[in-house]
Amino acid sequence: MYTPTYAAALDWVSDRMRDAGLEVRLDAVGNLFGRWEGSERSAPRLLTGSHVDTTLNAGRYDGVLGVLGAIEAVELLRDAGVRPRRSIEVVAWAGEEPRFGTGCVGSRMAAGELARADLDRLRDREGTSMAQAMRGAGFDPDRLDDARIDPAEIHALVELHIEQGAVLEAHGQSIGVVSAIAAPHDVRLTLRGAATHAGATPMGLRRDALAGAAEAMVALERAARESPSGTTVATVGVVRVRPGAINVVPGEVELDVDVRDSDLDAREQVVAAIVDGAREVAERRGLELEVTPIVEDVPVACDERIVEAAEAACRELGLSYRRMTSGAYHDAMIMGRRVPIGMVFVPSVGGISHHPDELTAPDDLDRGVRVLAGTLARLAA
Amino acid sequence: MARCRELAAVSEESGRLTRRFATPAMARANALVGAWMTAAGMEVRVDAAGNLVGHLPGTDDAAGTLLLGSHLDTVRDAGAFDGPLGVLAAVACVERLRGEGTRLPFSVDVMGFADEEGLRFGTAYLGSRAVAGDFDPELLTLVDDDGVSVADALRAFGGDPDAMGGASRRGERLLGYCEVHIEQGPVLEGRALPVGVVDAIAGATRVELEFTGQAGHAGTVPMAARHDAACAAAEWVVAVEAAARREPGLVATVGRLEALPGAPNVVPGAAVASLDVRHADDAVRDAAVGALRAEAERAAAARGVQVAWRVRMEAPAVAADPALTALLAEAVDERGLPALRLTSGAGHDGVALSSATGVAMLFVRCAGGLSHHPDESVDEADVAVALDVLHAFVLKLAGGLP
Questions:
Q1: In terms of DSSP bridges, do strands A183-192 and A252-261 run parallel, antiparallel, or are they unpaired?
Q2: Which candidate in A185, A226, A233 is best for mutational testing of the B interface (most B CBs within 10 A)?
Q3: For the segment B202-224, what is each residue's pLDDT rounded down to a tens digit?
Q4: Would B352 disulfide with which of A236, B104, B129, B162, CB 3.0-4.6 Å?
Q5: Helices A304-317 & A362-380 angle (0-180, nearest 10)
Q6: pLDDT at residue B401 in the model
Q7: Under an 8 A CB cutoff, do A260 and B218 touch?
């Protein structure tokens, strides 16, 4: 997000929105909206969409499907002669993928969850602050509050997304109707020892930060596997070793830890086990441990009316579906703390995501768009 | 020590010490040390490979030459003592011999080797290999970060890449090579000893590993369905440390580990790691490397992860010359100190010279074992002990000659 490539993507999406007859608006922080006016202007509106920023070396469907699919759903409804009572807004949230360490920053800003000071604090891996990046992209970080959305104006939010897992494929089902979204608790563990000569420092006299960090990673994997809920997942996606030379005992290691579950208690037990484990390792090895909080979100339950509307749309179309939990983090979760939300999943081939091989069969994409359209039609009536 | 600090100001970069092979800073360092050598009564030259040589003739032309010294190039942002201490200790030794009127039968050549650290061209012991007669002409085409070749750098420096054989001392009557060097480790400090005698320079194996699993979404792939390459690598890192702790004298280090693609919300599909294993006994090292490879394969297989194992470097251990080392140990012993024998885990110019002559090394305690860092430091009293030992060593060698 906030890159020239991202701006070009937003221009392209804006054109698709206009082609579909939507009224396009970019808010103060880069969230893009395309509005289809309902017959009752003052009625709380529907929001539907996802994000068009990507992770590194990404696939083509994560997020993008929810934006382009929503535009297509609007076109389907219009072509079918539907005249919604409530206005429907298609949204592309800015920055779902975590360039600045925290994900879903666009929807967080719309939900009023980021303060002005956070925009200076959050930095990307080159050290650029979010506020600097916003200015560079032509947005004014001091106008953050202009992006706030009043929850009273939102009737429901529905997000179409690829599953990013293999549950639907395993059960041979077309649609997942999401009942709850698991939320992450992310921390950074920094272990500091002593960077010394790899040849001249005997094993017994080392304070090797990487050996300690590796032990913490093994303990983390075990803690997640032994979670009381059976559904907790824990990941170390980033390992930074300093100085990172073949002949130097590592003096400092950072681990970015991500723990998720829809069961909050189980998740917190696993996080505690990981942090306690790292502390024990650090003490035993004479390392210094710093635990930096990154993000701690509460899992969100989907709104029962939206779940039922989506299930009704599936039945009308004769599609097989299942209720399921989303293991992934989505913009809908952020807004879900304030407004009723729902999500529709389509199958991911092999469960692969965040990878160029990410794929959903064309027929499944089409089914997802039609279920979204049916859901929106029911909610907008 | 004052000279070490004065020499440390001779750098390519202002504010920190970086002195690479065949740079203007190296030329200034050679000039400065050369002036000290001249003042000590030595004949000074720079050989075809850029090594500084200070020659003190002996009384008997047939008695051969003892080589002393160390290297004058540095790592980036270096300390003042790694290398220069050994060169300047040798210069100080010659000064003392002249000052007391000692005439040695053999010649002494104080060597300031040009390229031990290999920072500029990624080489190893370029200067000392030339002196040993083992210079590989293919190295002349290597280029630095600015695209300058070894040959061009040497020419600009006043060396002669077409006559590297001229730097070779192979075939001469060499009595040995003795080097004073900072320990770069914490063993002497732990034993409260100012100096130690090196019994071997450890052999080293360096390996690059790549663990390949499957990237996945950190939220949607259940633990049981993962092929997490970073977790496999982590389990292996723990096993490397445990294996090295079990084997006396073995050191094994994973200095690099990177998870790929390296995003906080992606299960790592690959992990790249480095391994550095050293031991004084090549058979022990080979066995350890084999065991660590098996550990990598086991940790990978437990997660459905593949592992590629690429050996990047293998250098055999070099045993110190027993006779020279015994003289050094005697000299230490006569100072009322236990002559602690230790293995050098770090490589030194002695590795290269061992093909041409016997090698001995004396280590000097350094604070905290810290090296390759501007805070590198040695105690003045420890250096005084090292100078006494080196001086006594030379006299013993002279006395022991037939």
A1: antiparallel
A2: A233
A3: 999 999 999 999 998 898 888 99
A4: B129
A5: 130
A6: 57
A7: yes
Res B402: pLDDT: 43
Q: What is the 3-state secondary structure (H, E, C) of A162-197?
A: ECCCCHHHHHCCCEEEEEEECEEEEEEEEEECCCEE
Q: How many residues does this entry show for chain B? A: 402
For residue B51, the distance in angstroms to the closest alpha carbon of chain A comes to 26
Which residues in chain B are closer than 8 Å to A261, comparing Cβ atoms? none
Nearest chain B Cα to A163, which residue?
Answer: B220
Find the helix packing angle between B380-400 and B84-99, rounded to 10°: 60
- Asked if B255 lies within 8 A of A98 by C-beta distance, the reply is no
From the list A146, A218, A357, A98, the residue with the least C-alpha distance to B232 is: A218
Q: Which residues in chain B touch residue A205, judged by CB atoms under 8 angstroms apart?
A: 185-187, 190, 369
Min Cα separation B381/chain A (Å): 22
For A65, the token pair is 């499907």
ipTM for the complex? 0.85
Distance CA B339, CA B193 (A): 9
- C-beta atoms of A165 and B185 within 8 A: no
Q: Does any CB of chain B come closer than 8 Å to the CB of residue A293?
A: no
Of A200, A232, A246, nearest to B185 by CB-CB distance is A200
Buried b (16+ CB within 10 A) or exposed e, B281-290: beebbeebbe
Task: Identify all chain B residues contacting A248, using CB atoms and an 8 Å cutoff.
Answer: 253, 255, 372
Lookup: tokens for A155:
């009737």
Cβ neighbourhood burial of A265 (10 Å; 0-12, 13-18, 19+): exposed
Angle, nearest 10°, between helix axes A264-285 and A209-225?
Answer: 150
- Which residues, 6 or more positions from A308, have their beta carbon under 8 angstroms from its beta carbon? none
CA distance B363 to B196: 5
What's the pLDDT tens digit per position in B318-353? 999 999 999 999 999 999 999 999 999 999 999 999
Which distant-in-sequence residues (6+ apart) come within 8 Å of A219 by Cβ?
A273, A274, A277, A278, A281
pTM for this entry: 0.80
Q: At CA B297, angle to CA B292 and CA B301, rounded to 5?
A: 150
- Closest in B185, B222, B259 to A237, CB measured: B259
